[in-house]
Amino acid sequence: MRRIYIVLAVAVALVPAAIAAGCGNDNSNDPSVTFVEPAKNATVGPDFTATVKLDNFKIDGAAVGKAPQKGVGHLHFSLDNGRYDTPVYSGPNGKLAKQLNVDGQYSPAVMPTITYRDIPAGKHTLKVELANNNHTSTGKSATEQINVE
Asked: Of the CATH numbers 3.30.2310.20, 2.60.40.10, 3.40.50.300, 1.10.3470.10, which one belongs to the domain with range 29-148?
């Protein structure tokens, strides 16, 4: 009889933990970002435009530099860890990066696209990160490997 009570006590103790693990962890409202173009392992020319899809995240150019606000901010694109995030390669986004003193790290964007030009042939890593208004990371990002011909 004592074994039954012990088994029952353990089961009762585990139920709240199981309920907690299954409840309240619905991340369907969390922000996310995915690449639309180029596709994973796509082959592109030296000039290409990357486009991302945002879920539960609003780009607000007027809020850049202000206090963080959940689900609002802008994007930080980077190609090969920022190697090509300069005015020469990422154009207007690279110019903005230079103004913010982050060129060579990432290219800020207030649109869900960026165009890179004159990228050398080879394999490259393209990343986009959701950024808070104050440029800190939200912790959400997407990465694609691409091939430039």
From this structure: 2.60.40.10
Of the candidates 88, 77, 139, 134, which has an alpha carbon nearest to the alpha carbon of residue 111? 77
Q: Cβ distance 19 to 123 under 8 Å?
A: no
Task: Give the pLDDT confidence score for residue 26 in this predicted structure.
Answer: 53
Would you list the domain boundaries of the chain? 29-148
pTM of the model: 0.81
How far apart CA 145 and CA 104 sit, in angstroms, is 19
pLDDT tens profile 58-68: 999 999 999 99
HSE, CB side, 13 Å, CA atoms: give it for residue 17.
5
